[in-house]
């Protein structure tokens, strides 16, 4: 996590709640319950895009 990164609330209706980075990391590392692994999902789609020449048009996105 970049220390200069602006903290953004995970829920717009909970501005003093946890920020996005904290929630994404907790979901990624969670072992119990239902967690959406956003970071893993992005890596999978990035890999598919490169491997199978898939292009995503919305939102604007380019594999790194």
TrEMBL record:
GO biological process, one term: oligosaccharide metabolic process
Coiled coil (UniProt feature): none
Gene Ontology CC: membrane
InterPro entries assigned: GT29-like_sf
ATP-binding in keyword set: no
Keywords from the named record: Disulfide bond, Glycosyltransferase, Transferase
Gene Ontology terms, MF aspect: alpha-N-acetylgalactosaminide alpha-2,6-sialyltransferase activity
Protein's UniProt name: SIA7E sialyltransferase
Organism: Pampusana beccarii (Western bronze ground-dove)
Gene from which this protein is expressed: St6galnac5
